[in-house]
Amino acid sequence: MADVSEQELVRLTRSGSLDAYGDLVRRHQNGVFGACYRVLGNREEAEDVTQEAFLRGYQRLHQYDAERPFGPWIRRVGANLALNRLAHNLAIHPPALELEEEVDWPEQAEPDPVHAAAEQLELQRRLQQALLELPAHYRAVIELRHFQEMNYQEIAAALRIPLSDVKSHLFRARRALARSLRDGP
Amino acid sequence: MAHNAVDVHPTEPELHALLDGELDVEARRRVERHLAGCPACARRLAGAQDLFMQIASLPELTLGRDLSRPVLRSLRRERRPMPVLGLLGLQSLAAVALIWAVRDQLPRLLSPLTQIDLPGRLIAAWSSLIGALLTMRLPATGLRTDSVAWLPRLGADLPDFGIAPDWILWGSLALGAWLLVNSLVVRAERARRPNGS
Q: Which residue in A25, A29, A62 is closest to B195 by CB distance?
């Protein structure tokens, strides 16, 4: 079903075709897994929640608006489940970081065409690693803001924390990520 | 000397809020005016922008295995009609067993129904059920609902089915439980269908 549109796959699933849903799972499993992994920081748990997200998605398919892309919807289902799992797993502790500290952003150097691609890959690897090593509540706000594209109010509602905490968590998380880019491994 | 608000360097969280589109109109104008005349803050903003872009450009994490197999296996297991059909089958068997158990009593139990005015008697029978329920003694509160004068009259003109009131009470409770269980089963069945029907 490689050439079948997403909307058609959803329609076929709604009319009872499990194979069509299998195709949707294959198309979006990495996106959902990424959201779950970034929130949970644990590969096995993320796989488990990803599977649960697709089961939940199937049961709630009647709530999905077929005019919109399927990917963001199912990723949101996964992220919500991962957040629930996180809340169940962890008692969240505030980090011992100073809010007042300013960030020294790295100077923008002229790109060297020979090394630029390798350097970019290395930056991404470091950033990915730093993201997964953030405290759980920082990972959660980064996931919801940057990957689920929620606004501050929506994040506060999803995590049941005050708006001021959303702002400070986001700032501190970004500062830690910026530091990982600046300082390296 | 008083500082103009535009001269105040925006904080890092303010710059982030600007990039997130979360500053109100007045704050956004103030920060943007400041940025236009402050290269240092403009560089801080560019640094934050670069980080945002790096986060956005992170490659997708890969799962490394096909998850559709276990998902579809679970869905196929869930879609088996066993729960509903099994429950209906069990209920049918229970009904047959019940009728079989009281087969000798059936003529006596059904004899009132052979009399005339069947609808009236059915209504009276249901009245007796309601009356039996409402005249229950409620042990927790000590309340007797038969203190309400009109309640006993509900069951006053009953046909004689030869069934003890206790049995009527337990029968009506069993009927209620049966209806409740079936409604929950139907609800659960609807919930696991993708079209919600």
A: A62
